[in-house]
Design brief:
This protein has helices at residues 52-66, 96-112, 128-141, 168-193, 201-214, 224-230, 233-239, 294-308, 354-367, 382-387, 399-412, 445-454, 490-501, and strands at 9-13, 16-17, 31-38, 41-42, 73-78, 81-87, 118-122, 158-162, 218-222, 247-253, 263-274, 314-324, 336-338, 344-346, 372-377, 391-396, 415-418, 436-437, 462-467, 473-474, 484-485. By secondary structure, the chain is of the alpha/beta class. Strands 1, 2, 3, 4, 5, 6, 7 and 8 form an eight-stranded mixed beta sheet that branches. An eight-stranded mixed beta sheet has the order 9-10-12-11-15-19-16-17, sandwiched between helices. A three-stranded mixed beta sheet has the order 13-14-18, covered by helices on one side. The radius of gyration is 25 Å and the shape is elongated. It starts with 8 loop residues before the first strand and ends with a helix. The structure holds ligand BES, manganese (II) ion and zinc ion.
Length: 502
Protein backbone atom coordinates (compact mmCIF):
# COMPACT_ATOMS: atom_id res chain seq x y z
CA UNK A 1 0.00 0.00 0.00
CA UNK A 2 2.78 2.41 0.91
CA UNK A 3 6.14 3.28 -0.62
CA UNK A 4 8.78 0.71 0.17
CA UNK A 5 11.48 1.90 2.51
CA UNK A 6 9.66 5.17 2.74
CA UNK A 7 10.86 6.58 6.00
CA UNK A 8 12.60 5.86 9.23
CA UNK A 9 10.88 6.89 12.40
CA UNK A 10 12.22 8.74 15.35
CA UNK A 11 10.29 8.01 18.46
CA UNK A 12 10.16 10.46 21.27
CA UNK A 13 7.99 9.14 24.04
CA UNK A 14 7.76 12.04 26.42
CA UNK A 15 11.24 12.45 27.88
CA UNK A 16 12.33 8.92 27.10
CA UNK A 17 14.16 9.62 23.93
CA UNK A 18 14.54 6.44 21.99
CA UNK A 19 14.88 6.47 18.28
CA UNK A 20 14.95 3.72 15.78
CA UNK A 21 14.91 3.40 12.10
CA UNK A 22 12.09 1.54 10.46
CA UNK A 23 11.61 0.78 6.82
CA UNK A 24 8.13 2.03 6.36
CA UNK A 25 5.52 3.92 8.27
CA UNK A 26 2.14 2.30 8.32
CA UNK A 27 -0.34 5.12 8.79
CA UNK A 28 -3.06 4.23 11.23
CA UNK A 29 -6.42 5.81 11.93
CA UNK A 30 -5.46 5.99 15.62
CA UNK A 31 -2.63 8.38 14.66
CA UNK A 32 -2.91 12.09 14.27
CA UNK A 33 -0.60 13.59 11.67
CA UNK A 34 0.85 17.05 11.98
CA UNK A 35 1.80 18.84 8.79
CA UNK A 36 3.33 22.30 8.85
CA UNK A 37 3.29 24.57 5.84
CA UNK A 38 6.55 26.34 5.03
CA UNK A 39 5.96 28.98 2.40
CA UNK A 40 3.01 27.00 1.10
CA UNK A 41 4.86 23.66 0.96
CA UNK A 42 4.15 20.78 3.34
CA UNK A 43 6.87 19.84 5.87
CA UNK A 44 6.34 16.23 4.92
CA UNK A 45 4.17 13.88 2.96
CA UNK A 46 2.10 10.98 4.07
CA UNK A 47 3.21 7.68 2.58
CA UNK A 48 1.29 7.36 -0.66
CA UNK A 49 -1.14 4.78 -1.97
CA UNK A 50 -4.69 4.71 -0.75
CA UNK A 51 -4.63 8.06 0.95
CA UNK A 52 -4.53 10.25 -2.16
CA UNK A 53 -7.63 12.20 -1.14
CA UNK A 54 -6.18 12.84 2.28
CA UNK A 55 -2.95 14.16 0.80
CA UNK A 56 -4.85 16.32 -1.61
CA UNK A 57 -6.91 17.86 1.19
CA UNK A 58 -3.76 18.66 3.15
CA UNK A 59 -2.24 20.49 0.18
CA UNK A 60 -5.46 22.39 -0.43
CA UNK A 61 -5.59 23.49 3.19
CA UNK A 62 -2.03 24.79 3.03
CA UNK A 63 -2.81 26.74 -0.11
CA UNK A 64 -5.83 28.37 1.49
CA UNK A 65 -3.81 29.18 4.61
CA UNK A 66 -1.04 30.70 2.47
CA UNK A 67 -3.69 32.91 0.81
CA UNK A 68 -4.93 33.95 4.24
CA UNK A 69 -8.35 32.32 3.68
CA UNK A 70 -7.91 30.21 6.82
CA UNK A 71 -6.41 31.65 9.97
CA UNK A 72 -4.58 29.39 12.39
CA UNK A 73 -4.63 25.64 11.86
CA UNK A 74 -7.15 23.36 10.19
CA UNK A 75 -8.23 19.80 10.95
CA UNK A 76 -8.31 17.68 7.83
CA UNK A 77 -9.94 14.26 7.71
CA UNK A 78 -10.35 11.73 4.92
CA UNK A 79 -10.63 7.97 4.70
CA UNK A 80 -10.41 7.71 8.47
CA UNK A 81 -7.10 9.59 8.62
CA UNK A 82 -6.73 12.77 10.62
CA UNK A 83 -4.25 15.61 10.32
CA UNK A 84 -3.69 18.97 11.86
CA UNK A 85 -2.46 21.29 9.15
CA UNK A 86 -0.84 24.55 10.08
CA UNK A 87 0.98 27.09 7.94
CA UNK A 88 3.96 28.68 9.67
CA UNK A 89 2.66 32.21 9.66
CA UNK A 90 3.98 35.66 10.37
CA UNK A 91 4.54 36.48 14.03
CA UNK A 92 5.60 40.02 14.88
CA UNK A 93 9.09 40.06 16.39
CA UNK A 94 9.81 36.38 15.82
CA UNK A 95 12.24 35.25 13.13
CA UNK A 96 11.69 32.20 10.97
CA UNK A 97 13.41 29.79 13.36
CA UNK A 98 11.32 30.99 16.26
CA UNK A 99 8.15 30.66 14.21
CA UNK A 100 9.08 27.06 13.47
CA UNK A 101 9.72 26.25 17.15
CA UNK A 102 6.45 27.92 18.04
CA UNK A 103 4.44 26.29 15.23
CA UNK A 104 5.59 22.83 16.32
CA UNK A 105 4.73 23.63 19.93
CA UNK A 106 1.27 24.98 19.06
CA UNK A 107 0.38 22.25 16.59
CA UNK A 108 1.31 19.48 18.96
CA UNK A 109 -0.47 21.13 21.87
CA UNK A 110 -3.66 21.34 19.79
CA UNK A 111 -3.23 17.72 18.71
CA UNK A 112 -2.91 16.51 22.27
CA UNK A 113 -6.48 17.67 22.86
CA UNK A 114 -7.59 14.92 20.48
CA UNK A 115 -7.73 11.31 21.49
CA UNK A 116 -4.95 9.45 19.74
CA UNK A 117 -2.19 6.92 20.35
CA UNK A 118 0.49 8.62 18.35
CA UNK A 119 1.30 12.04 16.98
CA UNK A 120 3.25 11.77 13.77
CA UNK A 121 5.00 14.96 12.72
CA UNK A 122 5.75 14.73 9.01
CA UNK A 123 9.13 16.31 8.40
CA UNK A 124 10.70 14.47 5.48
CA UNK A 125 10.54 17.41 3.07
CA UNK A 126 12.56 19.94 5.06
CA UNK A 127 16.29 20.35 5.89
CA UNK A 128 17.77 18.68 8.99
CA UNK A 129 18.32 21.96 10.80
CA UNK A 130 14.62 22.73 10.50
CA UNK A 131 13.66 19.33 11.89
CA UNK A 132 15.80 20.14 14.92
CA UNK A 133 13.91 23.40 15.47
CA UNK A 134 10.59 21.54 15.45
CA UNK A 135 11.81 19.03 18.02
CA UNK A 136 13.20 21.85 20.15
CA UNK A 137 9.89 23.72 20.12
CA UNK A 138 7.97 20.59 21.03
CA UNK A 139 10.38 19.62 23.82
CA UNK A 140 10.47 23.06 25.45
CA UNK A 141 6.68 23.35 25.27
CA UNK A 142 5.95 19.92 26.69
CA UNK A 143 8.02 20.47 29.84
CA UNK A 144 5.94 20.12 33.02
CA UNK A 145 6.97 20.67 36.64
CA UNK A 146 5.05 17.77 38.11
CA UNK A 147 6.89 16.84 41.29
CA UNK A 148 4.27 18.38 43.56
CA UNK A 149 1.11 17.32 41.72
CA UNK A 150 -0.84 14.56 43.47
CA UNK A 151 -2.35 13.32 40.25
CA UNK A 152 0.12 12.52 37.51
CA UNK A 153 -0.63 14.46 34.35
CA UNK A 154 -2.37 12.34 31.72
CA UNK A 155 0.00 10.25 29.66
CA UNK A 156 0.90 12.02 26.45
CA UNK A 157 0.63 10.17 23.15
CA UNK A 158 3.85 8.89 21.61
CA UNK A 159 5.49 11.51 19.49
CA UNK A 160 7.05 10.48 16.22
CA UNK A 161 9.07 12.60 13.85
CA UNK A 162 9.05 11.09 10.40
CA UNK A 163 12.11 12.10 8.40
CA UNK A 164 13.73 11.42 5.09
CA UNK A 165 15.02 7.89 4.71
CA UNK A 166 18.38 8.79 3.13
CA UNK A 167 19.25 11.19 5.90
CA UNK A 168 18.30 8.91 8.79
CA UNK A 169 21.75 8.59 10.36
CA UNK A 170 22.63 12.23 9.88
CA UNK A 171 19.41 13.51 11.39
CA UNK A 172 19.64 10.94 14.18
CA UNK A 173 23.00 12.41 15.20
CA UNK A 174 21.68 15.95 15.15
CA UNK A 175 18.60 15.08 17.18
CA UNK A 176 20.59 13.02 19.69
CA UNK A 177 22.84 16.00 20.34
CA UNK A 178 19.88 18.35 20.56
CA UNK A 179 18.16 16.13 23.12
CA UNK A 180 21.26 16.14 25.31
CA UNK A 181 21.05 19.95 25.39
CA UNK A 182 17.32 19.90 26.03
CA UNK A 183 17.79 17.55 28.97
CA UNK A 184 20.00 20.25 30.48
CA UNK A 185 17.18 22.78 30.09
CA UNK A 186 14.89 20.38 31.97
CA UNK A 187 17.41 20.12 34.80
CA UNK A 188 17.62 23.91 35.09
CA UNK A 189 13.85 24.37 34.98
CA UNK A 190 13.29 21.74 37.66
CA UNK A 191 15.78 23.45 39.97
CA UNK A 192 14.37 26.94 39.39
CA UNK A 193 10.76 25.81 39.91
CA UNK A 194 11.57 24.01 43.18
CA UNK A 195 10.28 25.81 46.32
CA UNK A 196 12.84 27.88 48.22
CA UNK A 197 12.54 26.03 51.53
CA UNK A 198 13.41 22.78 49.77
CA UNK A 199 16.13 24.07 47.50
CA UNK A 200 18.39 25.68 50.13
CA UNK A 201 22.03 26.33 49.13
CA UNK A 202 23.23 22.91 50.34
CA UNK A 203 20.52 21.07 48.40
CA UNK A 204 21.18 23.07 45.24
CA UNK A 205 24.92 22.42 45.61
CA UNK A 206 24.22 18.68 46.01
CA UNK A 207 22.12 18.68 42.85
CA UNK A 208 24.89 20.49 41.01
CA UNK A 209 27.47 18.04 42.28
CA UNK A 210 25.43 15.06 41.11
CA UNK A 211 24.69 16.61 37.73
CA UNK A 212 28.23 17.77 36.95
CA UNK A 213 29.91 14.59 38.17
CA UNK A 214 27.52 12.43 36.15
CA UNK A 215 28.93 14.28 33.16
CA UNK A 216 32.60 13.90 34.12
CA UNK A 217 33.14 17.47 35.25
CA UNK A 218 35.04 18.40 38.37
CA UNK A 219 33.06 19.99 41.20
CA UNK A 220 34.20 21.72 44.35
CA UNK A 221 32.10 23.42 47.02
CA UNK A 222 33.39 25.91 49.60
CA UNK A 223 31.21 26.20 52.71
CA UNK A 224 30.72 29.13 55.07
CA UNK A 225 33.70 28.36 57.26
CA UNK A 226 36.12 28.37 54.33
CA UNK A 227 34.50 31.48 52.84
CA UNK A 228 34.89 33.38 56.11
CA UNK A 229 38.48 32.23 56.53
CA UNK A 230 39.42 33.17 52.98
CA UNK A 231 37.68 36.54 52.84
CA UNK A 232 34.72 35.84 50.54
CA UNK A 233 32.69 38.40 52.45
CA UNK A 234 30.06 39.04 49.81
CA UNK A 235 28.57 35.58 50.28
CA UNK A 236 29.16 35.59 54.02
CA UNK A 237 27.44 38.96 54.41
CA UNK A 238 24.35 38.06 52.40
CA UNK A 239 24.06 34.62 53.99
CA UNK A 240 24.35 35.83 57.60
CA UNK A 241 20.63 36.15 58.24
CA UNK A 242 19.88 32.53 57.44
CA UNK A 243 20.64 29.18 59.07
CA UNK A 244 21.12 27.86 55.56
CA UNK A 245 24.75 28.70 55.02
CA UNK A 246 26.20 30.12 51.79
CA UNK A 247 28.29 28.07 49.37
CA UNK A 248 30.64 28.94 46.53
CA UNK A 249 30.67 26.15 43.94
CA UNK A 250 33.12 25.64 41.08
CA UNK A 251 32.60 23.20 38.21
CA UNK A 252 35.19 22.77 35.48
CA UNK A 253 35.38 21.39 31.97
CA UNK A 254 38.78 21.18 30.32
CA UNK A 255 38.99 18.88 27.30
CA UNK A 256 42.39 17.75 26.04
CA UNK A 257 41.86 19.52 22.72
CA UNK A 258 40.87 22.84 24.32
CA UNK A 259 41.76 25.88 22.25
CA UNK A 260 44.86 27.47 23.80
CA UNK A 261 44.48 30.89 25.40
CA UNK A 262 40.71 30.77 25.92
CA UNK A 263 39.01 30.08 29.23
CA UNK A 264 35.36 31.06 29.53
CA UNK A 265 34.07 31.34 33.08
CA UNK A 266 30.33 31.56 33.69
CA UNK A 267 29.44 33.22 37.00
CA UNK A 268 25.92 32.61 38.29
CA UNK A 269 23.81 34.34 40.92
CA UNK A 270 22.29 31.65 43.10
CA UNK A 271 20.08 33.28 45.70
CA UNK A 272 17.90 30.31 46.61
CA UNK A 273 15.29 32.67 48.01
CA UNK A 274 15.33 36.46 48.02
CA UNK A 275 13.05 37.94 50.69
CA UNK A 276 14.99 41.17 50.36
CA UNK A 277 16.45 40.68 53.85
CA UNK A 278 15.99 43.56 56.33
CA UNK A 279 15.02 45.75 53.34
CA UNK A 280 12.19 43.27 52.95
CA UNK A 281 10.16 42.94 49.76
CA UNK A 282 6.38 43.43 49.59
CA UNK A 283 4.34 40.19 49.93
CA UNK A 284 2.72 40.44 46.50
CA UNK A 285 4.32 37.82 44.23
CA UNK A 286 7.26 37.44 46.58
CA UNK A 287 6.96 33.69 46.01
CA UNK A 288 8.49 34.21 42.58
CA UNK A 289 11.80 34.97 44.31
CA UNK A 290 12.42 31.23 44.45
CA UNK A 291 13.70 31.85 40.92
CA UNK A 292 16.55 34.06 42.13
CA UNK A 293 19.02 31.20 41.66
CA UNK A 294 18.26 30.92 37.93
CA UNK A 295 21.61 32.42 36.93
CA UNK A 296 23.55 29.79 38.88
CA UNK A 297 21.40 26.90 37.65
CA UNK A 298 21.67 28.12 34.07
CA UNK A 299 25.46 28.47 34.33
CA UNK A 300 25.70 24.82 35.42
CA UNK A 301 23.17 23.69 32.81
CA UNK A 302 25.12 25.48 30.07
CA UNK A 303 28.43 24.02 31.25
CA UNK A 304 27.04 20.49 31.14
CA UNK A 305 25.54 21.12 27.68
CA UNK A 306 28.93 22.41 26.47
CA UNK A 307 30.66 19.33 27.90
CA UNK A 308 28.12 16.97 26.36
CA UNK A 309 28.71 18.64 23.01
CA UNK A 310 32.46 18.02 23.58
CA UNK A 311 33.31 21.54 22.45
CA UNK A 312 37.07 22.09 22.26
CA UNK A 313 37.18 24.98 24.70
CA UNK A 314 37.87 25.32 28.42
CA UNK A 315 34.81 26.44 30.35
CA UNK A 316 34.14 26.73 34.08
CA UNK A 317 31.13 27.72 36.12
CA UNK A 318 31.32 29.58 39.42
CA UNK A 319 28.08 29.64 41.38
CA UNK A 320 27.35 31.88 44.36
CA UNK A 321 24.69 30.25 46.52
CA UNK A 322 23.04 31.98 49.47
CA UNK A 323 19.65 32.65 51.02
CA UNK A 324 18.68 36.29 51.61
CA UNK A 325 16.37 36.63 54.61
CA UNK A 326 15.92 38.71 57.73
CA UNK A 327 17.07 37.24 61.02
CA UNK A 328 18.77 38.35 64.19
CA UNK A 329 22.16 38.06 62.53
CA UNK A 330 21.19 39.62 59.19
CA UNK A 331 23.32 42.28 57.58
CA UNK A 332 21.90 45.73 58.37
CA UNK A 333 21.61 48.71 56.06
CA UNK A 334 24.70 50.81 56.73
CA UNK A 335 26.94 47.81 57.46
CA UNK A 336 30.28 47.75 55.66
CA UNK A 337 32.27 44.73 54.49
CA UNK A 338 35.52 44.27 52.62
CA UNK A 339 35.18 42.28 49.40
CA UNK A 340 37.71 39.70 48.27
CA UNK A 341 39.50 42.20 46.00
CA UNK A 342 39.96 44.67 48.88
CA UNK A 343 37.17 47.11 47.96
CA UNK A 344 34.91 48.14 50.85
CA UNK A 345 31.15 48.18 50.32
CA UNK A 346 28.37 49.85 52.32
CA UNK A 347 25.15 47.87 52.24
CA UNK A 348 22.65 50.58 51.44
CA UNK A 349 19.85 48.15 50.60
CA UNK A 350 19.95 44.50 51.68
CA UNK A 351 17.71 43.67 48.71
CA UNK A 352 20.56 44.51 46.32
CA UNK A 353 22.19 41.25 47.42
CA UNK A 354 22.93 39.69 44.04
CA UNK A 355 25.77 42.09 43.24
CA UNK A 356 27.27 41.45 46.69
CA UNK A 357 27.63 37.70 46.24
CA UNK A 358 28.81 38.19 42.65
CA UNK A 359 31.87 40.10 43.94
CA UNK A 360 33.13 36.72 45.15
CA UNK A 361 32.19 34.91 41.96
CA UNK A 362 34.00 37.45 39.78
CA UNK A 363 37.10 37.23 41.98
CA UNK A 364 37.04 33.44 41.76
CA UNK A 365 36.73 33.61 37.96
CA UNK A 366 39.92 35.67 37.86
CA UNK A 367 41.64 33.21 40.18
CA UNK A 368 40.72 30.38 37.79
CA UNK A 369 42.49 32.26 35.01
CA UNK A 370 39.46 33.39 33.01
CA UNK A 371 40.07 35.10 29.67
CA UNK A 372 36.32 35.67 29.24
CA UNK A 373 33.77 36.09 32.02
CA UNK A 374 30.02 36.03 31.48
CA UNK A 375 27.90 36.51 34.56
CA UNK A 376 24.21 35.61 34.64
CA UNK A 377 21.89 37.02 37.23
CA UNK A 378 18.26 37.78 37.97
CA UNK A 379 19.73 41.04 39.14
CA UNK A 380 17.25 43.91 38.86
CA UNK A 381 13.56 44.67 38.64
CA UNK A 382 14.75 47.62 36.56
CA UNK A 383 15.61 45.40 33.59
CA UNK A 384 11.97 44.30 33.47
CA UNK A 385 10.88 47.92 33.35
CA UNK A 386 13.45 48.70 30.64
CA UNK A 387 13.13 45.64 28.37
CA UNK A 388 10.01 43.80 29.51
CA UNK A 389 9.59 40.05 30.04
CA UNK A 390 10.94 38.86 26.66
CA UNK A 391 14.32 40.57 26.31
CA UNK A 392 17.32 40.23 28.59
CA UNK A 393 19.90 42.96 29.14
CA UNK A 394 23.55 42.57 28.23
CA UNK A 395 26.22 44.99 29.40
CA UNK A 396 29.99 44.88 29.25
CA UNK A 397 33.11 46.70 28.28
CA UNK A 398 34.14 44.28 25.54
CA UNK A 399 32.12 45.23 22.50
CA UNK A 400 32.88 42.09 20.53
CA UNK A 401 31.85 39.81 23.40
CA UNK A 402 28.60 41.72 23.85
CA UNK A 403 27.89 41.48 20.13
CA UNK A 404 28.74 37.78 20.08
CA UNK A 405 26.25 37.20 22.89
CA UNK A 406 23.52 39.14 21.13
CA UNK A 407 24.11 37.12 17.98
CA UNK A 408 24.29 33.78 19.79
CA UNK A 409 21.02 34.68 21.49
CA UNK A 410 19.35 35.47 18.17
CA UNK A 411 20.32 32.01 16.89
CA UNK A 412 19.08 30.34 20.05
CA UNK A 413 15.74 32.20 20.13
CA UNK A 414 16.80 34.19 23.21
CA UNK A 415 16.83 37.96 22.79
CA UNK A 416 19.51 40.09 24.43
CA UNK A 417 19.76 43.82 24.02
CA UNK A 418 22.79 45.94 24.99
CA UNK A 419 22.46 48.76 27.49
CA UNK A 420 25.27 51.29 27.96
CA UNK A 421 27.82 50.71 30.70
CA UNK A 422 28.23 54.45 30.97
CA UNK A 423 30.78 55.65 33.52
CA UNK A 424 28.86 58.90 33.99
CA UNK A 425 26.56 57.03 36.38
CA UNK A 426 29.38 55.54 38.42
CA UNK A 427 29.12 58.44 40.90
CA UNK A 428 25.62 57.22 41.88
CA UNK A 429 27.46 54.46 43.78
CA UNK A 430 29.74 56.85 45.72
CA UNK A 431 29.50 56.52 49.49
CA UNK A 432 30.63 58.73 52.36
CA UNK A 433 31.90 55.83 54.50
CA UNK A 434 33.00 52.99 52.19
CA UNK A 435 34.55 52.83 48.71
CA UNK A 436 31.11 52.36 47.23
CA UNK A 437 27.55 51.44 48.17
CA UNK A 438 25.42 48.68 46.69
CA UNK A 439 22.48 50.71 45.43
CA UNK A 440 22.54 53.43 42.81
CA UNK A 441 19.04 54.73 43.48
CA UNK A 442 15.88 54.56 41.41
CA UNK A 443 17.25 55.69 38.05
CA UNK A 444 19.16 53.54 35.52
CA UNK A 445 19.07 50.56 37.87
CA UNK A 446 20.34 48.05 35.31
CA UNK A 447 23.33 50.21 34.48
CA UNK A 448 24.31 51.07 38.06
CA UNK A 449 24.09 47.36 38.98
CA UNK A 450 26.48 46.54 36.12
CA UNK A 451 28.79 49.44 37.06
CA UNK A 452 28.93 47.99 40.57
CA UNK A 453 29.96 44.58 39.17
CA UNK A 454 32.57 46.19 36.93
CA UNK A 455 34.47 47.28 40.05
CA UNK A 456 35.08 43.59 40.80
CA UNK A 457 35.93 42.28 37.34
CA UNK A 458 39.54 41.02 37.24
CA UNK A 459 41.93 43.06 35.08
CA UNK A 460 42.56 42.00 31.47
CA UNK A 461 39.47 39.86 31.03
CA UNK A 462 36.68 40.32 28.53
CA UNK A 463 33.50 40.55 30.60
CA UNK A 464 29.77 40.68 29.92
CA UNK A 465 26.88 40.77 32.38
CA UNK A 466 23.50 39.24 31.52
CA UNK A 467 20.52 40.50 33.50
CA UNK A 468 17.89 37.75 33.12
CA UNK A 469 15.46 38.97 35.82
CA UNK A 470 12.62 39.30 33.29
CA UNK A 471 13.26 36.25 31.13
CA UNK A 472 14.30 33.46 33.51
CA UNK A 473 10.81 32.89 34.84
CA UNK A 474 7.62 33.34 32.81
CA UNK A 475 4.83 34.85 34.91
CA UNK A 476 2.41 33.66 32.23
CA UNK A 477 2.90 31.29 29.31
CA UNK A 478 5.18 32.80 26.70
CA UNK A 479 6.02 31.50 23.21
CA UNK A 480 6.69 27.77 23.72
CA UNK A 481 7.20 28.13 27.46
CA UNK A 482 4.54 27.43 30.04
CA UNK A 483 4.37 29.44 33.26
CA UNK A 484 7.53 29.18 35.36
CA UNK A 485 11.21 28.60 34.70
CA UNK A 486 12.53 28.90 31.13
CA UNK A 487 16.29 28.13 31.45
CA UNK A 488 16.73 31.34 29.43
CA UNK A 489 20.37 31.87 28.48
CA UNK A 490 21.45 28.24 28.39
CA UNK A 491 21.15 27.82 24.65
CA UNK A 492 22.76 31.23 24.06
CA UNK A 493 25.80 30.26 26.15
CA UNK A 494 26.15 27.02 24.23
CA UNK A 495 26.19 29.01 20.98
CA UNK A 496 28.69 31.45 22.49
CA UNK A 497 31.00 28.60 23.51
CA UNK A 498 30.84 27.24 19.94
CA UNK A 499 32.02 30.63 18.70
CA UNK A 500 34.82 30.91 21.26
CA UNK A 501 35.95 27.39 20.36
CA UNK A 502 36.17 28.21 16.66
N1 LIG B 1 16.24 39.40 42.72
C1 LIG B 1 15.94 40.78 42.66
C2 LIG B 1 15.63 41.27 41.25
C3 LIG B 1 14.40 40.70 40.60
C4 LIG B 1 13.21 41.42 40.61
C5 LIG B 1 14.44 39.50 39.93
C6 LIG B 1 12.09 40.91 39.99
C7 LIG B 1 13.31 38.98 39.30
C8 LIG B 1 12.13 39.69 39.34
C9 LIG B 1 17.14 41.59 43.17
O1 LIG B 1 17.87 40.99 44.19
C10 LIG B 1 16.60 42.85 43.73
O2 LIG B 1 15.86 42.80 44.67
N2 LIG B 1 17.01 43.99 43.15
C11 LIG B 1 16.59 45.26 43.62
C12 LIG B 1 17.78 46.18 43.57
C13 LIG B 1 17.56 47.52 44.24
C14 LIG B 1 17.31 47.35 45.72
C15 LIG B 1 18.77 48.39 44.00
C16 LIG B 1 15.47 45.75 42.71
O3 LIG B 1 15.52 45.51 41.51
O4 LIG B 1 14.54 46.36 43.21
MN1 LIG C 1 17.07 41.30 46.10
ZN1 LIG D 1 17.86 38.94 44.26
Amino acid sequence: MFHDGYKPLYFVTMRNWTWKSVDAIDPSTSDVFVVLGLEGLPSGELPGGSSAIFRHKIKASLELQALGEIKGFEWVEAEGFRALVQAVGEKPGLDFSERLRLAAAEAIKATEQRKCDRIVLLADQIPEAKVALLLEGWWLSSYRFNSWKSKPSPKSPDFVVAVNHEKAEEIGEILNHLVSVLECTDWVRNAVNEPGSILIPQVLADRMETFTQANELSWKAHGRHALERDGYHGLVTVGKGSDHEPILGVARYKPENAKPGVHLVLVGKGVTFDTGGISIKPADRMWEMKNDMAGAATAIGALVAIAKAKLPVEVSAVVCLAENRPGNRSVLPGDVFRAKNGTTVMVDNTDAEGRLILTDGLWEAGDLGATHIVDLATLTGAVIRALGPSIAGVLGDDESLVEMIRLSGAIAGEKFWPLPLDAEYRSKLDDSVADLKNSGGPEAGVITAALFLKEFVPANTAWAHLDIAGTAFATKSWKYYGEGATAFGLRTLLELAKRLAA
